[in-house]
Predict the 3D structure of the following.
Amino acid sequence: MKKSSLILLLFFFLGSCKEISFREPQPRGRRALKSVPQKLWGKYLTFQENGEISQDTIVITQSGYRFGYFDPRASSGLKEGYDVGVLSDSLVLKSYKHYYFLSFYENPEWLLRVIRQEKNGDLVYMAMEQEDVDFKDYARKLSAEITIDSIKLENETLYQIDPSPPKLIELIDKGLFSRTNLKKVR
């Protein structure tokens, strides 16, 4: 193992848990979509940790998404307090190899969510984090696949990667993204 990799792993052991991030929207070099493709539009139910369908709903529209508690009696279908994301300079959607990449800017880093639509219309929602795995173990596994840079900013350390588009797909295929299923409401 390279000396720099050992130093990087030491930073992971000493630092707090943090999601892997990026310097720019992913995949790099691909153009941003101006709107969400129509085949993704609709309402999607999320699942609780025990596998049961929750009342939280994601509504995907042409311009972005809304996320919140679903109430079929409410005129909008969603109650107050839901999260809204609109495609912009700080919420960027790109497409590559049958995946949709949603990058959002959290100054000074970009976080990434990946979406793949199943044949039945459901979505697989992926992120560069592993809920049931310790971050340092996850980082060790990831660092075997790609160089992880650490950037120290005031009171926090950012852990970033800069994959090529094919390498990004390889990381997905190797299971380095957590996966959650979203059930399409028909």
Summary: Residues 1-17 have pLDDT under 50 and may be disordered. Residues 3-14 form the longest helix (12 residues).
